[in-house]
Amino acid sequence: MTAPEQRYRVLCAASGADFHTCFYCGCVATELDFAPPRAHWQSFFVRQASADNLQVPSCKECHTLLKGCAMGLVEQRREWVHTKLAAKYAKPIAVYLKWTQEELAELDYGFAHSIGAGLRLGEESHRRSNYPGFRYEVDGAVVAASLVQPLPVMVFEQRFDDLKSALVAVSKQYQIKQAKLVEGLADHDNNLEAVVLAHQQQQQQALYRRQLRAACSAFAKQHQQSLRYVTNSVERYLDKDEELSIAEALDKLYQERVRHR
Ligand SMILES: [Zn+2]
After folding, report:
1. DSSP tag of 21
2. Distance, CA 98 to ligand 1 centroid (Å)?
């Protein structure tokens, strides 16, 4: 059997600042992760399956989280870790994304203190679960420099470096609470733009319903009809003809059903 050193090359940080850093999350590295795991090396080799065959510096937590991961590529292993980290720290990450510094400043001391602790853990967990890795060398040649670019968050053609800054800006710009945006992310596949659009649509529908109620109620009073009858009739007209405005539907109701009574 081949010795590990010959089967696995060493992933080595290209810059001194990244020495002893976990390639997966950016914490201090104390362990070595093997891509693929040593127990699976033979099977990857026999199947000629894609494997980086690298020793990767990793922290204790990432090393533990990777215990069940049999993947052979560093990128796949990183994604595995990020998913696990995001799930494990989902609560503090949500706290971090939801709360703004201004809101914190308004809380009383005890509550602000407990939220603040969650916020710091959330910020750290969010950063770790999005860590882009660093430039590294294998056998003296720099590889994978392109991996270092984290994906920007795009919202209506505005570009943000990370989700938190996007949330802060979008919340201000569109007058939607950060907490509401974060809750929407789960329903919209983490697409912030879709969350904003859905919110605007909801607002428009709510506004339309208020206008409909007000117009029907005024009509019912004026012509001494029951509000329920007026609302049902108008809704039926509107359902049949999408082009119709509320006023036109009311007029139609008047011409067809009210005037000759
Ligand atoms: Zn780590």
Report:
1. B
2. 25
Residues 136, 138, 142, 146, Cα dihedral to 10° = -60
- Which residues are bridge partners to 154 per DSSP? 159
At 79-125, the pLDDT tens digits run: 999 999 999 999 999 989 988 777 877 877 777 787 888 888 999 99
Tell me how crowded residue 129 is: count the other CB atoms within 10 A of its CB: 20
d(CA 36, CA 14): 22
Residues 6+ apart with CB under 8 A from 66: 24, 33, 58, 77, 80, 81
- Are 9 and 55 spatial neighbours (Cβ–Cβ below 8 Å)? yes
How far, in Å, from the CA of 21 to the mean position of ligand 1? 8
What is the residue-wise DSSP string for 131-199? -----EEETTEEE-GGGG-PPPEEETTEEESSHHHHHHHHHHHHT--HHHHHHHHHHTTT-HHHHHHHH
* Whole-number pLDDT of residue 1: 46
Residue 225 has pLDDT above 80, yes or no: yes
- What's the gap in Å between 195 CA and the centre of ligand 1? 31
Residue type, 30: T
Please compute, for residue 35, the number of CA atoms within 13 A of its CA located in the half-sphere on the CB side.
26
Task: Tell whether the model's pLDDT for residue 54 goes beyond 80.
Answer: yes
- pLDDT tens-digit series, residues 164-215: 889 999 999 999 998 899 889 888 888 999 999 999 999 999 999 999 999 9
